[in-house]
Amino acid sequence: MAQQEDIFKKIVSHSKEYGFVFQSSEIYDGLGAVYDYGQMGVQLKNNIKKYWWDSMVLLHENVVGIDSAIFMHPTIWKASGHVDAFNDPLIDNKDSKKRYRADVLIEEHLAKIDDKINKEVEKAAKRFGEAFDEVQFRETNARVLENQAKRNQIHTRFAQALNDSNLDDLRNIIIDCEIACPISGTRNWTEVRQFNLMFSTEMGSTSDGAMKVYLRPETAQGIFVNYLNVQKTGRMKIPFGIAQIGKAFRNEIVARQFIFRMREFEQMELQFFVAPGEEMKWFEEWKSIRMNWHQALGFGAHKYRFHDHEKLAHYANAATDIEYEMPFGFKEVEGIHSRTDFDLAQHEQFSGKKLQYFDPELGKSYTPYVVETSIGVDRMFLSVMSASYCEEMLEGGESRVVLKLPAALAPVKLAVLPLVKKDGLPEKAREIIDNLKFDFACQYDEKDSIGKRYRRQDAIGTPFCVTIDHQSLEDNTVTIRHRDTMEQERVSIDSLERVISEKTDMKYLLKEIAK
Ligand code: ATP
């Protein structure tokens, strides 16, 4: 674990050093849990968004996109339930004065018990070798059974407390499990309180009567209130989906772990409208489509898992998260929810407008049900950085840091490097860039030794380095170096576009998931 935390620290400092992520307002000592994306970060982030957007809007005939405003009529947040119920249960440690989410403290405690059980199983697997029967071991080993029973009991109590919004019992679980503050080490806890996560501001001057408006805490409501506009103008037939990428804001109290939990972040959401009764089928379908999207990036299936919710939100009848194994454990990257007709029905009630669909096949009107997939761009970014960051020992005792980014997501696709700064090589390099810049993000670099230049490109994840030498002037060939294998091959300049596009074009990644 300590080693993993170490890696996380390295990823954070690497992100800064190479222009991926900066702390917001850094010269003023920063603003808590707000971050800026630098020259490399913005390209990686744009590529992640494109991967998502194209996978939704290009690959599904019945999915269209919108871009709704951040400000919306304040009644929308009353109707959606956010004004009354978008709360986190908070608890403070009186000695360290640190604030925590009570639910997160308990979840972490449960995860520790899971770890204990898994360690026991691993130990036994090593001891018994080939003959090991894991299922039997889990069912019979006294220590495993004892821990499992303990875990189940806490888990049941926890789910019950969340569902009943029973703050006292959440606190009691923390006390009974002897959960201590990681900073002070004490168990001197305050009561648990609810805290609303929405930011508000005022719109209009006071003379016109200023109106309290909210910064949206999710992009989904912008889709719901446009449901009818899109359905009618796009002549959409159910089932169909509306996709959107945009900023969301939450006044997160416990905002640590870099860009994992931010106060201003970006979401990519799909609301998929279906006939009542069809929602479970579509819930399963979208679970599989979304998992496939993640796994096509090639980080390994074992890095992902589904995690069903302990507590269903007030609007949902089924919910699961896709978790990715970050350096600090398995964490939610995406939520998939079956939202029933809750949102549209609420907006019908609060706006007094009908938001129904006339189903020609059934010959009747209904308020559609909704299956939602909601992924945070920034958490996705963090998972991509975590999966790609790699320290390698090379022959001769040297080492390198390389970001093994999926080529389609890499901020720079190729670097063009003249071997020396003279003899017409820089001009030849510029000529190549002038030809390729319409297709690929290219970088020119002539400073330092070629080895150092390779290292700089490895550190930002550039899949290809193209080196121009004296032979290039004679026979129009260059060497192309592959980032991950460091192998070099000599190819003709005319073939560069094809060779690079075969690996970096988003289209191939999309074809992978459309199979
Ligand atoms: P958590 O339990 O971690 O607070 P959530 O369940 O409240 O997350 P959702 O409301 O389901 O999150 O939001 C959908 C997605 O938006 C999440 O899976 C996550 O990727 C992203 N997201 C939510 N809150 C934040 C945040 N504060 N910073 C960055 N991304 C976020």
Helix content: 40-55%
Return residue spans where pLDDT drops below 50 for at least 5 consecutive residues: none
User: What is the number of helical segments per DSSP (H or I, 4+ residues)?
Assistant: 18
Please state roughly what percent of the residues sit in beta strands, choosing from under 5%, 5-15%, 15-25%, 25-35%, 35-45% or over 45%: 15-25%
Terminal residue distance? 37 Å
List how many beta strands DSSP finds: 23
User: Structural class of the secondary structure composition?
Assistant: alpha+beta
- Quaternary structure annotation: single chain
Question: Can you list the ligands bound to this structure?
Answer: adenosine-5'-triphosphate
Average pLDDT, to the nearest integer?
Answer: 95
Largest sheet: 7 strands, mixed
Instruction: Please identify the top-level CATH class of the largest domain.
Output: Alpha Beta
In the CATH scheme, what's the topology name of the largest domain?
Answer: BirA Bifunctional Protein, domain 2
Largest sheet, spatial ordering of strands = 3-9-10-16-13-12-11
Count of all domains = 3
CATH architecture of the largest domain: 2-Layer Sandwich
Q: What shape does the CA trace take? A: globular
Question: Over the alpha carbons, how many angstroms does the gyration radius reach?
Answer: 26 Å
Explain what you see.
The chain has 515 residues and is α+β, with helices and mostly antiparallel strands. It folds into 3 domains: 40-71 and 216-385, Bira Bifunctional Protein, Domain 2 (BirA Bifunctional Protein, domain 2, 2-Layer Sandwich), CATH 3.30.930; 87-196, 2-Layer Sandwich (Herpes Virus-1); 400-514, Rossmann fold (3-Layer(aba) Sandwich), CATH 3.40.50.800. The mean pLDDT is 95. The site of adenosine-5'-triphosphate has 16 residues, from β10, β13, β16 and α13.
